[in-house]
From TrEMBL:
It holds the Pfam family BrxC. NCBIfam families: B_thiol_YtxJ (TIGR04019). This is Bacillithiol system redox-active protein YtxJ. InterPro entries: BrxC (IPR022551), Thioredoxin-like_sf (IPR036249). SUPFAM superfamilies: Thioredoxin-like.
Length: 110
């Protein structure tokens, strides 16, 4: 299941409580982002043990910008980021966000 987050406080709480999780920056108006979201959802449904979250860029621009700045990751949308132990370990954007690429990211970042 994919859970929506909207605030910097929610994100900071995730960094504290989750050892490892995915976050998707999702644009509500972009067809590429919709395709990435569907792949992300398929991955999350198959990998229930790994928490998966998303933010809607239009609703949470300050949070999206904060993540880009704090982790030195150029903002893109859609963009999937794997966080582990409070650090961004992997990210991909646009058509590179697939169920397979997300699964491979987990394997590469044990």
């Amino acid at each position: 299941m994919v859970e929506k987050i909207e605030t910097q406080e929610q994100f900071e709480e995730l960094l504290k409580k989750e050892k490892k999780f995915f976050l998707l920056k999702h644009s509500l108006t972009c067809p590429i982002s919709q395709a990435a979201y569907q792949e992300y959802q398929k991955f999350a449904d198959a990998e229930e043990a790994l928490p998966a979250y998303f933010l809607a860029v239009q609703d949470s621009r300050p949070l999206s910008n904060e993540i880009a700045e704090k982790f030195n990751i150029k903002h893109e949308s859609p963009q999937a980021i794997l966080f582990s132990n409070g650090e961004a370990r992997w990210n991909a954007s646009h058509w590179k966000i697939t169920k397979r690429s997300l699964a491979e990211a987990i394997g590469e970042n044990q």
